[in-house]
Amino acid sequence: MIESEKDCKLCGKIIYPTSLLHDLKLKICSDCYPISYELKEAIPILHLPWWDAFYLCVICEVKLMFEYINQKWCPHCFIIYSGCRYCLTTNIIFGYTKQSECNKCKRIIPTIMNKTNINIRDNEIGDFLYNTRNVISYCDIVEYMKEIDKYGDTPLNVYKCLKERIYKNFNPEAVMEWIPYSRIKNLKKIAQGGFSSIYQATWLDGGINGAEYSSSYRRENEVIAIKKFSGSQHVSNHFLDEVKSCHKCYEFERVIRCYGVTKEPEKKEYMLVMNFADGGNLRNYLHKNFTKITWKEKLDMLWQISSGLEAIHDANFIHRDFHSGNILLVKSYRKWKTGQWIIGDLGLSQPVNNITSNDKIYGVLPYLAPEILNSMSFSKSSKSSDVYSMSIIMWEITACRKPFPNAKSDVQFACKVIDGKRLEITNDTPKCFANLMRRSWDTDPEKRPSITEIRETFSLWYNEEDCVDQFIEAEKTRKKLIESNELGPNFTEKSTSNTIIVIEISKSSSNSNNSTNPFDTKQVHLF
After folding, report:
1. Are 82 and 91 in contact, with CB atoms under 8 Å apart?
2. Where does the pLDDT of residue 234 fall: very low under 50, low under 70, confident under 90, or very high at 90 and above?
3. How does DSSP assign 368-399, residue by residue?
4. Is the pLDDT of residue 510 over 60?
5. Which of 73, 83, 28 has its CA nearest to residue 51?
6. Chain Cα centroid distance, residue 42
7. What homologous superfamily is domain 177-275 in, according to CATH?
8. CA-based nearest residue to 282, from 316, 308, 311
9. How far apart are the first and last CA of the chain?
10. Per-residue pLDDT band at 129 (split at 50, 70, 90)
């Protein structure tokens, strides 16, 4: 046990300060609180003087995985339950360690995990997944130990305290799991990109749903999406960045949920396990349904989309690859009429204070802000750059067609955008909407509104609290334009706007100030 007293209350021995907990001014009794081996930090271990016979995790109520009769662990919380068969006692270990010690007989109990169930020990992925759990702090343990006498002789009060007090802010949906590959079935490749492949599959266990463990459940045999990165036998920075971005930016109903990570055993490739968007992306949705989408529905869609981008910005991240192919529809979510719009593919997302200079720009060219094209670097990325991309999505939803469908994705087109070329606003667009769109694609990033202002404006319009007459007239005009075939996509046109453009600074022209050919381009297929 961790103590802040002079002597250990259990054994009476003098306890000494440890450098690991120096900042908290705590002390550890080495006899009553064994420190784990070969780990960066101390791991809390709760010694129970009884045999824990539960088959569900006392914290999250997930079914425990048994390695031996005396050893089990929670694949969701990463908590190990190690029992001593001689003394019928239990150590609850809040982390990974190769062994623990019985508090009564001092026997060393190995904690050997089945590598087919968990294969993340001693690497960056394992550290990150463990840290998503917001495990109990040393301060909470100390306060709990000080008050342990208040719980009397009822053993179950220990579990109640852990679940209700120490883990009270433990959001099960924000947690990422290590998912055994053996629990994933029916893989079917559905898309191929320049950097990764997307599969549809079935997860036998399913992800945990619910904001609190008391009302949470798993959706067994859940259909999921799996994203496999090219050459991911080793954990690349790109893979780890996307995992971290998914966790930091996740907000219920707004950004695609990443359930966790798995690893294909033969090729040893890491993969992300994510929520499956059964309605496809925004681009395809507009293609199929443009005649049916009223202005009221457009405002609803834009409110949902802007709420997702706002969640990313509130986490102090920048998306950097915001376009209609990365906006996904979950049709099975029935809170909204057409389903739930979420933002996906956070592979290029970065913290605001972590944008480094690079001689390559990845993205769909019509959505890239002019300051990025002008600097030929993502170092100029900002939240305002995402707002520019949002303005193009606003136009795309109003016009129901791809932005600049006939433009070549090349240097000349990029230079036109830098010089102020913008999309032609459709005749049915309300004046208030057009003004917001123009502000959002302003050449000067400082003059663009924040995504919060945009989201709040959509809310006012949707709830008919402002510009009501303008949207009534806009809907009438929209219907007339649809009837006369003057509004909507012409998908027979050849277009390169659904490709990823990799822009590289040319060594021979990187110092040139003219805009005739400042960079070379390479096209990569975008799924």
Report:
1. yes
2. low
3. S-HHHHHHTSGGG--HHHHHHHHHHHHHHHHH
4. no
5. 83
6. 28
7. Phosphorylase Kinase; domain 1 (3.30.200.20)
8. 308
9. 53
10. low
CA–CA gap between residue 397 and residue 406 (Å, rounded): 18
Distance in angstroms (rounded) separating the CA atoms of residues 396 and 398: 6
Beta strands at 208-209 and 217-218: parallel, antiparallel or unpaired: antiparallel
Q: How far apart are CA 480 and CA 476, in angstroms?
A: 7
Q: Return the amino acid letter for 296.
A: K
Task: State the pLDDT at residue 3.
Answer: 33
Query: Where exactly are the structural domains of the chain?
Result: 2-114+135-169, 177-275, 282-525
Tell me the pLDDT tens digit for each residue of 369-397: 999 888 766 667 789 999 999 999 999 99
Residues 309-338, mean pLDDT to the nearest whole number: 84
Neighbour order of strands in the sheet with 269-275 = 177-178, 258-264, 269-275, 222-229, 196-203, 184-192
Residue 264 burial by CB count (10 A; 0-12/13-18/19+): exposed, middle or buried? middle
Paired strand residues for 511: none
To the nearest whole percent, how much of the chain has pLDDT over 70? 62
- Considering only CA atoms, which of 396, 387, 465, 386 is closest in space to residue 429? 396
Report the top-level CATH class of 282-525: mainly alpha
Contacts of 92 (CB under 8 A, 6+ apart): 45, 46, 48, 52, 58, 79, 80, 81
**Residues 351, 404: contact at Cβ < 8 Å?**
no
Cβ density class 36-52: b for 16+ within 10 Å, e for less: beeeeebbbbbbbeeeb
Total Cβ atoms within 10 A of residue 114 = 12
Tell me if 39 sits within 8 A of 96, measured CB to CB.
Answer: yes
Q: β-pairing, 327-330 with 317-318?
A: unpaired
Please give the pLDDT value at position 84.
92
Taking 90 as the threshold, does the pLDDT of residue 246 lie above it?
A: no
Q: DSSP of 78-129, one letter per residue?
A: --EEEEETTTTEEEEESS--SEEE-TTT--EEE----TTT---TTSHHHHHH
Task: Give the whole-angstrom CA distance, residue 466 versus residue 450.
Answer: 19
pTM here?
Answer: 0.74
> In the predicted model, is pLDDT for residue 499 greater than 90?
no
What SS3 state is found at 56?
Answer: strand
CA 154 to chain centre: 40
Distances, alpha carbon 448 to alpha carbons 304, 388, 435, 452, in Å: 20, 8, 11, 12
Mean pLDDT of the chain: 75
Of 58, 86, 59, 47, the closest CA to residue 70 belongs to: 86
How many C-beta atoms lie closer than 10 Å to residue 224's C-beta? 20
Neighbour count for residue 458 (Cβ, 10 Å): 23
User: Could you write out the three-class secondary structure of 317-331?
Assistant: EECCCCCHHHEEEEC
